[in-house]
Every structure is written in structure tokens, then in C-alpha cells.
Amino acid sequence: FFFKQKTAYEIAQRLVGSEMCIRDRQCRWGWKTLEIVRKIVAKFDANDLPLEVVWSDIDYMNAYADFRIDPIKFKDMQDFVDILHSKNMKWVPIIDAGIKLDPKDKYYILGEQTGAFVKSAVTKKTLEAKVWPGPAVFADWYKPAATELYHLGYADLYKQAEFDGIWLDMNEVSNFCDGECPAKKDTEEGYLEEPFADPHDPHEFDNLPYTPGGMFLNKNTISMTGYHYSGSELEDATRKEYNVHNLYGLYEAKITHQFMVNKLAKRPFVLTRSSWVGAGQYTSKWTGDNVSSWEFMQDSINGLFNNQLFGLAHSGADICGFLGNTTEELCGRWLQLGAFYPFTRNHNVPDSIAQELYEFGPICFTASKTALRQKYSILRYYYTKMFEVSTKGGSLFRPTFFDYPTDAGAYAHSSSQFLIGSSLLVVPALTEGVSIVKAYCPNANWFDLRTRKLIVSFDPLAKEGKEIDLEANFEYVNVLLKGGSIIPYQQALEKRVKRTKALESMPMELIIAPENQQAEGTLFVDDGISYHTVESKHYRHYKFTYLNGGLKVTLLNEYPTLYPYEKVTTFSLLDSNDKLKVCIAHKKGKHEVIGTYNQESNMMVYQFNGDLGWNDVYGIN
Known about the structure:
With about 625 residues, the chain is of the alpha/beta class. Helix content is about 25%, strand content about 25%. The strands form eight sheets. It has a nine-stranded parallel β-sheet. Strand 11 (about 285), helix 9 (about 295-310) and strand 12 (about 315) form a beta-alpha-beta unit. It is globular, with a radius of gyration of 26 Å.
């Protein structure tokens, strides 16, 4: 593809963004019973560890069949989900691509009756494959009956336990056979030796001039000659698996998204392993099966950069690694990095050591408590940026050269640090045994978000930025705030927040980080759960502009409802030793607040008695 835009960020703005709340999640393949899951959740609470979402891998299924909860090992699943909901937590189960091939199976019977499955060019009947439940068949998303079949399955699953999202796996699609695996295979090539007429010739793609990596295209997936429902002769010739293979995950995510919106009237959460261009409007994505190694942890940053370009703003990698055994130091560093992924989840396989955050020593314990709460402190900023990406395009998690395309140093450090929006620079520790990390700060004012101190100043004569050393401990992650920014902040770390629900009752602080006596920022708030919030304009969107000692608050979209978490009690003006008065103009008149000077951080702090409701605020000077 060729793009006419001048910078990578401008290209990203042309692609579709997603919108989603950002929460901490714990998962493992190998939680074999509900009792195990109950104990794990209890240990998180007992150890004062943040936990928002509990995930269930295929262990919860009855004989690994979709849409069925094991009635013995996961008995009383709805009671457990009710407990999670009472604690402001969520439950997300996995759904694997592949309906169990069983003549007695409800979904197989209905799918066969309605022609809802991908067909075989060999047998001219439903293509047979193999995945976790054994013999399996795959939905043909071009046939409307397939969507109806899955919506029925989701509805049946929801009656068993009220899930809050769906996790789609194995949807490339994956197959434990190469191509097809019915008993009819009787030649080395895997085809019956008899002639077939076009357009479904089973040998059509045997001798391609090129295949990616030189690999057999049917390797661990369904046959490229499998064919999908078509309504015309032209479609019949093109809807072979070879032509539509990459779209499977996209369409499965789309119909899952539709179910949650239309049937459950919920803001949907869908996570997928396979995706295609445009999937970001329906689903979140993780990077798939990774390995517990320093190299995979480092590479996850570039993987997420790529997902942003593909329009998948809400994405992440399995923290601490999915395959193999992690170490306490590696897991601790990965927790620090992964806390700032847009999508944050710890997940691994049954035959690896346990990775629950309380299973390690003080390194992981400290890192998990502090890094996740650091993110919670700026969650309103993340949410605001996700809203803006979903409406304007662009990327949330991005390399520094996106914002500084002419700065050579930004390219040199593009894989060791990242921006969250344009205001926050995160510098994680990515190698074993380090106590110092090098941060590359493009030419601007940069403040330490933790101490609020100015650590790098803008140089009007410089063409590039500056490299500095930062301490890399497990007590906090280095997060720098760019001069010229205004961001919302809540004291989640200080208040030991475990659920994002608690943030709703916590007032906000506006941090003003000036450069040349100027700064600006935005804040988006809505109810967090309703669908079509943006289309119906049921939200409030603020713009903050600071100029020469005056702060102007502008409502870009004024929805009459004032949300609980809109309340601001503190303004902090960084790099300022001027004891300015703050004048607040509102409907009931005006009053002045004298700021307090913090000498250690060189900032002014303006504290208000009671909450300052934005409905009343017209201007602050």
C-alpha cells in the first residue's frame, strides 16, 4: 500500500480506531475447576493486588465444546459470576473456532440443516477438521445461518453464566490436521484420486509459484480449496478459502460484537487472536502465543506498534509470557511494561510455572502493586485518548518518531520506550540485571510524573533531543510528562485502588505542565457502559487551555448529566514558583484560592474545599 501522508502518525490517523475501558486481567489455561478459580481470586484480594477481570480458558467447557459450561467442574458458575459482579469485577470466557462434529450435538445438527459450515472441495459436503473437542467443523460467515447459529450459542452460554465479554481464539482458523482430516484421506497428497469439476478443484492450489516462507498453505489450517456460501456464479468462483482465509477472524469478531450490542444491549468487549484491516471497530487484539523470554518481552513493543497501524488501538501481549517458564525478575519487568499496554493481561499454559502475581517474591509483588496503580492513576487520560483515537483515528501506544519524525534520536530509541498519546513517555527496563535505563527525550520540557520535577528543558537551538539516565527499580515505572500538556490524574497508587470502580468516587487533579507558559489537554467522560455513547452525544468532552497564568475550560460537548468522576479538587501548576491566585468564576459568583508552593517539586498546588463541579465552571484565571 502507498500512503500520501508525510508522517507515520498521519498514516495511522487514516485507519480505524477502537474504544474500550482499560482494566487489569488475570488468566491461565489450566485452571481446571471453579474451586481453583475461586481460591485464586480470593488470594488476589487477600494480598491487596489489583484485579478487574477473570478469564476462563477452555477448562470451563464441557468436553471442550463451545457454548457449554462443564456441569461438574464448573458447577454454580453463575453464582461465582454474581460474586465477581458484586465486587465490580468481570468474567470473560473463551470461544474456540470449531463446532464439535457430533451427530448428537445441537449446534452441529442445526448448522448442517442450514448449511452454515465451510464446504469441502473433496467431498462436496461439510469440511471436516480437528481441534480441541476432536472432530470439528467451521462456521461459514458468508451464510447468514452461521451468524444465527453463533448468536444462539452465545445466548445459551449467557443463560448458563452472564459473561461480560468474549475471547475468540484459534480463529485463523487453526486445525490439528493439514487441510482436511476425514477418514476418506487415502493418498500421500491427502486427496481422493478421482476427477472433480471446477470451480471446486481440490488440486487448484497445489503448485503455487510462491507461498509465504515456502510453507504448505494448508499447514495447521483448513484446506485452501474449501469453499464458502455464494449467491452468484462470480462469487462461486472467488469464495474459496484461498481468497477469504484472512477474513475469518474479522467476521467472527463482527458477529460477536453484533450479538453483544443487539441481544445484550451492552457495550461490547471482544478479544481476538486473528484479525484483518477494519477489525478495530469490533474487537480488541492480543499478539498471540509468546514465550517467557527477555527477547519476546522486548519485541512486544514493536508488535503493539504494528497493531496500532492496523487500527487495533486496544491491544496487548501476554504478560510474563505464555509458553515456557518465566523468572521473578523477567515477570516483574514485564509486569511493569505490560501495565502500560492498552490491553493488560497475564496468561500462560498449564505446564509452565504459575504466574499469578502473588506466586513470586517481593520483586513481582512490588512491581504488580505499583505499576498497575500507576496506570490507574492516569486511566482518565488513557480513556480520553482512546475516545479521540476512535473518533479521529491515530494511535494511542506509539513510538517517539511518530510525534518527532525529523529527530534521528527518536528513531534510534523507537523500540525501547513509547508514547501514550502525545503527553506521556514511558521508559521501561527491558534487559536483565539493569539498574539504570536510558531515556531519549525529544526536544521539549519533560517532567517526572512521579516527582513532578522538570528533568529536561526545551532548547530553542537544538535540532534533536537529549538522552538521560533514569533509575530502574521495581518501585515505579519511569513515566515522563511532556511540557505543554494538561492531563487528569487520580491518586490510585496512594489510595491502593484495586478496581477501577473506586476511581468514580475519587476526585481528579489537573496537572498543568507548561512550556513557554502554554499548555493544553482534554478530558472525556461518559457512563462507561452504554453503547452508542458517541453517536448519541451522551458524553462530556472538555478542552483545557493554559496561557500566561490563565486556565480556560471549554466544553466541546455539553451533555447535561454530570458524572461522579468529573469532580476536580486540585490544580497543580508545574515549574512555577509564582504564588498566583486562582479565580474561579461560576454560576454562584466568584471566589479566590491561594496556592501552596511545593519547593521540592517547584510547583504550585491549588486545593479546593469540596468538589469543583464542572457544570459550574466557566473559567479559571
